[in-house]
Specification:
single chain, about 250 residues, alpha/beta, TIM Barrel, six-stranded parallel beta sheet, globular, binds zinc ion
């Protein structure tokens, strides 16, 4: 193992084990959640459509500063796309405004950016965002866990693994869904493990395209993953659906 990945593992263990705000998953699992970050338009035009075919909905962590822009993940969402998603029952969640890294931003400035992102969504869609947040780049710090955690229903990172039996609402575990057909096996193994452990498996991705960016997936990979989760009998829920139930337990 290289030094960089060793340091990454140490950081992940450190971040996951401290400043936790845990709730028991109880008997809610196995659950599978699909999330999209930023978000590129194809996460709606291709991604939402695939999920809806299975009667499922996704969580979209929206960084409003990216609206109407174009980057290496493709064309980003427009204002109307938020209305469309909300109207079709998907969850609009928080991802900051300027898509800042918590590791490279002073904690108060980072907290202000999350609040600005929330306000901007509220101005755009009357219902506003849910109170669930995902760290841009998956880069959380202990200081932001501590500062933001109590004010948010949940925060999601990109440290892999399954949530449960104890769920850390200050740093939900999530697994990338990137690539094409060659990744179907990996996604299926995660779903099977999640079935055995009766836990909560969260996937994250960005664009959904025949030729995706390195941070996106093909329609085929998404379709196969959703279909397999359904076939195994997992409950497909948004982050908000799960968190609401957790707090009601
Ligand atoms: Zn992002």
């Amino acid at each position: 193992m290289g030094l960089r990945s060793q340091l990454g593992k140490i950081r992940a263990t450190y971040l996951s084990s401290r400043c936790r705000r845990t709730v028991a998953l109880g008997n809610l699992g196995p659950i599978v959640t699909f999330t999209f970050d930023d978000f590129p338009r194809t996460a709606l035009t291709a991604g939402a459509t695939i999920l809806e075919r299975f009667g499922a909905r996704a969580t979209y962590y929206v960084a409003m500063g990216l609206m109407d822009s174009e980057n290496r993940l493709g064309e980003q969402f427009h204002r109307d796309d938020l209305h469309t998603l909300a109207g079709r029952g998907h969850e609009i969640a928080l991802h900051g405004f300027k898509h800042l890294s918590a590791r490279r931003t002073p904690v108060e400035k980072f907290a202000d950016d999350v609040a600005e992102g929330r306000r901007a969504i509220q101005e755009c869609i009357p219902a506003g965002a849910s109170n669930n947040f995902a760290y841009p780049y998956g880069e959380a710090t202990l200081a932001t866990k501590h500062r933001l955690g109590p004010n948010l229903a949940s925060s999601r990172g990109t440290i892999g693994g399954l949530n449960g039996p104890e769920v850390d609402l200050n740093l939900l575990r999530a697994n990338s869904l990137y690539g094409d057909e060659e990744q179907v096996g990996r996604a299926r193994r995660l779903i099977l493990r999640n079935q055995v452990e009766k836990s909560w498996l969260i996937f994250y991705s960005h664009d959904v395209a025949e030729k995706p960016s390195p941070y996106g997936c093909t329609p085929l990979l998404l379709q196969e993953t959703v279909a397999f989760a359904v076939a195994q009998g997992a409950r497909l829920m948004t982050v908000a659906d799960v968190v609401t139930k957790l707090q009601a337990v």
